[in-house]
Write a structure and sequence with these properties.
Blueprint lengths: L1 H13 L1 H32 L6 E6 L7 E5 L8 H14 L3 E5 L9 H8 L6 E4 L2 H6 L3 H10 L3 E2 L3 E5 L4 E5 L17 E5 L17 E4 L8 E2 L3 E2 L12 E5 L2 E5 L17 E6 L1
Parallel strand pairs: 1-14, 2-3, 3-4, 4-5, 7-8, 8-9, 9-13
Antiparallel strand pairs: 2-14, 6-7, 10-11, 12-13
Helix pairs in contact: 3-4
């Protein structure tokens, strides 16, 4: 019996077609496994993580006097339920102010509904436009009117002073950033709103900002552990998402609420940021 088995094995080893068929089966199994894994990752990124909101908290002062909530890059496309969830979370956080750093929408037809939902935020709303807001050609004066109703402001290359003259919030529009500030000695906190984070380096001047907020990058939307973003959304100056120290002050880049081009997020959850300043 053992002799027959040896003869069979010896025959199979001499027949290359048997070996090739075995290799082909292994390769097909591996390929099928990789395709299945790829499909599962896509389903996860598109159906789960894309709207799996995270609230991140940063403490940037040993004696904070201002609670800021930062959201950005909503890219509202009509998903009322999702944006309403964002607003509900923001309201539960009870901030002093809420800052939006651009790209509320992609198409002007969605702006009225987006503003109606955002204005359910019960706290002053301060914001600036992003590139998609410009491209939509929606009238900025209408956005400003809605932000004003919340007690906030739409800051297009200007600033506003609140809290009895102690807090200054400035905003920049377009592809250039120019420092905007007041010389008032009563100001204890200075905040600057940008859409493009790479412009933060151009804000260095006589006054250092206590906080610079930006968006635009979406954190890449798809990230790999220890590697970072694999999709480049105009990421520049090594700024993708998170906290960075710049010559003008601490810069925080929020990875955003919505998505663009690819409706997917992997290892890059949509974020609502709380900053104690």
């Amino acid at each position: 019996m053992s002799g027959n088995l040896g003869c069979i094995l010896n025959y199979q080893m001499k027949d290359p077609s048997i070996v090739l068929r075995r290799i082909a089966r292994v390769l097909l199994t591996v390929i099928a496994g990789l395709i299945a894994l790829y499909c599962l990752v896509l389903i996860y990124g598109m159906c789960i993580e894309r709207k799996w909101l995270i609230v991140k908290t940063l403490n940037l002062s040993p004696s904070p006097c201002l609670k800021v909530v930062h959201i950005t890059d909503i890219h509202y496309k009509g998903d009322r339920k999702y944006l309403t969830k964002v607003v509900d979370i923001v309201n539960r956080l009870s901030p002093d102010i809420v800052c939006i750093t651009g790209d509320i929408i992609e198409e002007s037809g969605f702006m009225d509904e987006a503003l109606a939902i955002l204005c359910q935020i019960r706290y002053p709303l301060f914001g600036i436009p992003g590139n998609h807001d410009y491209w939509s050609r929606y009238p900025f004066e209408k956005i400003a009117a809605q932000f004003n109703k919340t007690g906030g402001a739409w800051l297009c290359d200007t600033n506003i002073i609140i809290r009895n003259g102690s807090i200054e919030i400035a905003g920049s529009t377009g592809s250039e950033a120019k420092a905007v500030y007041s010389e008032s000695p009563s100001i204890t906190r200075r905040i600057f709103l940008l859409h493009y984070p790479s412009l933060a380096v151009s804000l260095a001047g006589p006054h250092r900002y206590n906080l610079i907020l930006a968006g635009h990058t979406h954190g890449g939307q798809v990230r790999l552990p220890y590697i970072g973003p694999i999709l480049n959304y105009c990421i520049g100056n090594d700024f993708d998402s998170g906290l960075f120290n710049t010559s003008a002050g601490p810069l925080y880049i929020n990875p955003g609420i919505g998505t663009f081009y690819h409706d997917i997020r992997i290892f890059c959850r949509p974020e609502i940021t709380v900053i104690n300043l």
